[in-house]
Every structure is written in C-alpha cells, then in structure tokens.
Design a protein that fits this description.
The structure is a homodimer of 307-residue chains. With 307 residues, chain A is α/β, with parallel strands linked by helices. Chain A contains 8 helices and 13 strands.
C-alpha cells in the first residue's frame, strides 16, 4: 500500500520583514499578526530556480531517511512557477539529482490545492504502473511574480519547497480524496506577468465552500472530530485558517499555524506542517488546500498500523 | 474498466505554406516532403488561447458522441503553453464548458510524450477516485513561441488540440505503459521566451532510445509485430517516423503519417491519428511519444471485447 514515508523541506534563510512595509501600506502590526499572519517572508536568491529549491528539499529528505536514488521510479513537481515552461521542471530536477533513465517525470500545474491533488495523482500513477518509490515535489516561488505595490499580495507569500517520499513503506496513507473547481472564477487569482488576487473574493469562496467540503468528506468516511488528530489547512492567511477552524467548530490546538515567519508558501504550506507530524500518533489527519483556480482538495490520512 | 471512448479534434483552418519559406532557408521541396514532412502549418488566431482550442476540440467530441457535461468528473489539460501560468488552463476550460463544481481539474506539463503520460495519469487518477467519465485535453500552440529565424523550428510545428473521452464504456483500453527521462539533456529542447531545439541531438536521442524502448514494451507484454495493427508514433518529422519504422523492421502501412498539411502538433499528434482509428478492428495498437525533457512514453492499447 503506497503512502507517505517522509517529507523533506527547504525554506530559504533570507527573510524580508513585513513590519518595515507597514507605513507604505498604512497597516499596523496587529493586522500583520492577527489577520494576515505573516511577520516576515522567506525569499529565495534571485538566481535560484524552482528546480534548485526542489533539490535542496531533497537534500533535507536525505538527512532524514536513507534513499537509494536508483529506486526512485517517479518524480512529480507541483508548480506554477517552473524554471521554464518548456521543459517541465521535473525533468530538470531529474537531471540535477541524476535519477535513473527509467524514472517517469512530469509537472502538475496547480496552486494551493496542489499538494493534495499531487498526493492523489502520484499514488494512483505509481500504483497503476507498479512503482514502489517516488518523489512528489512542491515549489512555487511567488517572489518571482509579486507586484510590490499591491498590498493584497506583497505581504503574503513566501518561497519554499518540499519533497514527499511516496513508498510502500509508508507511515501515513490517504484513505479518501475529494476535489472541487469553480473555473468560472479563475480571474480572482491570476498571473499575467504580475500576480493579481481579489483577496475578498478568494476569502469568501474559501470561507463558504471549504468548511462544508471538509465536513462532507468526514461524513462520507464516518469520521468524527474526535478521531481526527490534526487538521492541516493550507496557510492562506491567519484569518482564513481561523475562519475555517471556527466554522468547523474544532479546537484550535488541532489546527497548526506556522506561516508567521515565512508566509504563504502555496502548495508547500501543507507538507511543511505535515513534515512535523510524520512521527505523530494521530490515527487520522485531515489535509485541505484551496486557492488558485479556484480549486480545492482535501484528503484524510490514516496512520499505517505498526508504524 | 476505464479506457478511451472517443476523441475530439480541432485543427485551425489557417495554414502557413512552408513552400514560400524555402528560399529564405535555402531548402528545397524534397526536403519539406521527405525529411521534414511538413508542407504547411496550421496556425491559430492570435487572440485564440489554449483554452479556446480545447473548447473547440470539445465541440468536435460532442458531434461524435453524446456527452452529458454533468457526468464529467475529471478534466486534465496537457500543455506547456498555458493561457497563463496561474491559474491552470484546465480551470479555465472548466469554466468555459460550465462543468460541475465537483469536477477535479489540473494541468500536466509535458511535451511530445504528454498524451501517453496523460492517458496513464487520468485513468489512474479516475480509477483511484472512483470516477467514471473524464476529459483529457492536449493543446500546445507553438505558434506563440516560434523563432521565425530558426530553420530548426520555424517550419516544423502546427497548432491543434484534442480531447479524449475517458469512460467505463471504452473502445480501447491501455494494457501497459512504459516511461523514460534523460533530464540531463533538458537543454536540447527549451523555451526561454523563444523556442530552441537542437534538432540533431533530439533526433539522435529518439533514433537510439525509442525503438529499443518499444521493443522492450512489446516483449514484456508477449506481443509480436503480427498482433499490433497500428504503431501510432509522435509525428516529430517524416525522417524520425521513418527511422523508427525502419529500426523496428515494421511495415510502413502500419505506421500512419499525417502531419504533412499541419505540422508537428506536440502532444496532440498521437490523438489526432488515434481519433481516426477509434472504430478500427485492431486487437492492439501501440502509441509512442518522445521529445521535450528529454522524455519518452509508450503504451499498448487493446480493443475492448464486444466493442
């Protein structure tokens, strides 16, 4: 049974302080802490490419678990800021890591729902092709596309990358997935050279759609709140995480929040938190991502018995 | 059992003649016909986006088979020339076709191997998520990125789109897939604003790797040439299709060639041909795509009994 064996992370050390930008945008520190939830943003070096961030996340994975690169049969990168549009970034990562020629590589283009989609895709793809070990990368450096005059986005995003080792020797495995799309509202979050986000529309969509979506998935799988150890929500902002938490009527202690020091890292936000929970004893964890598309996706992870 | 039920196509009517470009590049018509295999290129309108091409392919699909849009549970677009990088083009197609909110959407970034990869991905994803009907789009309008001073690419590519209906009521289903990547050679085919292709390197890679790869897949599945009704090879050029045909020692009649009037349509080249074979009586067909990445992928389709 394929599932998640381990997660490697890379968060650039360089931080840009949001406190210094407060005057420019006529905002206060209370807003930063309690609404936005971002005091500083992690920023990659200008010449660092998405594939470089992925490679650094892989080095972290290698520190945590033994990996024989020859065993890797599949390498998927989730990104909407690829090194180039042609070729796919996964091929470049494949080259940089010197993976085997028989390794399947492709990119998935998705934003904040990308990790959950990616999990479903890589596990299904590997299972149907008889593969035993694969890598799912997330890396979406928004620092490349931010409009620094736009207070809706200039304070929010951080750069990061993660890599999830998918293996038959898993600690957690997904038991069910659920997906959704409001394609007619795609213009609410769009990058035509520079990023544009209608923050209010994206917030309203999330606050309305996501709690119900999560409840439906739990009901479908006959799971109550008492059985879920963690709700790992995409770190869109402090306000959106708090709003979903309240609407679900769940305890805040079960909803990790960790973007304060680096920002919204798009498809990396969920695995950055999940990495800290890999050795935990929760029977179930629920993951939910939402954003660009507009798109949302949730899954329930179950602890593998005996692990 | 999920497989291919039908294929819709869209090839823009506007053609650019290569004959008129011969003098500029100091080439002759024999080269166009017998080496390149492209007399004219199909070119989309300038303001037509990738999502528009997809929608037009969907209209063709609707002409061929009855589709209830409410039944579509999954929509994947294979492209490396998306409308925007953010959001994914599949979300825009979802909006334009007014698909259901519960429909899962994502893009796959791959070039000429993209259709085969896409088939494996959508079938695996749908199967693991209990879905019964889905759409796999391909659309990669290279007219957006061509360097018109480069004879390696200016004469070669054409715009097109296809959509494959994946359904439990299939005519052909894949029995096995095989994939490969040479990520270290990713720079041989790259787009950094304009397309660059090292034609000789890509040709050498294809001529060396692909025939052996196809033979291995046939051997692994105990299939002889006599059992394969069609070899549908990515239409990279006349010369590459002929070379693979010769190296495989297979009859030219089994290897369709159809790019002469519109060019190399990247991930659409295989489904453009396959669409014509959907009502055929071949027990098996072999598909093989190769190019950007460098990446290659092959599959064997089997006729569904009783269809």
């Amino acid at each position: 049974m394929l599932g998640i064996a381990e997660i490697g992370r890379y968060i650039p050390n360089v931080r840009v302080s949001n406190v210094e930008k407060l005057a420019k945008f006529e905002l206060d520190e209370d807003f930063l802490k309690n609404k936005l939830g971002v005091l500083s943003q992690s920023i990659k070096d200008e010449d660092e490419k998405t594939s470089d961030l992925c490679v650094k996340a892989f080095y972290d994975l290698e520190q945590k678990t033994e990996i024989n690169k020859e065993d890797i049969e599949c390498c998927i990168v989730v990104t909407q800021n690829p090194d180039y549009n042609i070729p796919h970034t996964s091929a470049i990562v494949h080259g940089k890591l010197a993976l085997e020629e028989s390794c399947a590589c492709f990119d998935i283009s998705l934003g904040c729902s990308g990790y959950v989609y990616g999990l479903s895709t890589i596990i299904a793809f590997m299972q149907n092709n008889g593969m035993k070990k694969g890598l799912l990368f997330t890396a979406d450096p928004y620092s490349e596309i931010i409009d620094h005059d736009d207070k809706n986005t200039d304070l929010l995003f951080g750069d990061a990358a993660t890599v999830t080792l998918i293996s038959t020797e898993a600690l957690y495995k997904p038991v069910d997935f659920s997906f959704g799309t409001k394609g007619k509202e795609y213009q609410q979050l769009l990058c035509d050279k520079k990023l544009y986000m209608n923050g209010r529309a994206v917030f309203n969509f999330t606050a309305t759609v996501v709690p119900k979506h999560i409840q439906n998935l739990m009901q479908k799988n006959n799971l109550s709140d008492a059985q879920i150890g963690r709700y790992i929500l995409h770190q869109g902002s402090r306000f959106i995480v708090d709003t979903i938490t309240k609407r679900l009527k769940i305890a805040q202690e079960k909803v990790p929040f960790n973007m304060l020091e680096y920002g919204n890292t798009v498809s990396s936000s969920i695995p950055l938190i999940l990495a800290e929970e890999m050795k935990s004893e929760h029977s179930y964890m629920l993951l939910s991502g939402y954003g660009v598309g507009l798109s949302w996706a949730s899954t329930i992870l179950q602890k593998v018995e005996g692990k």
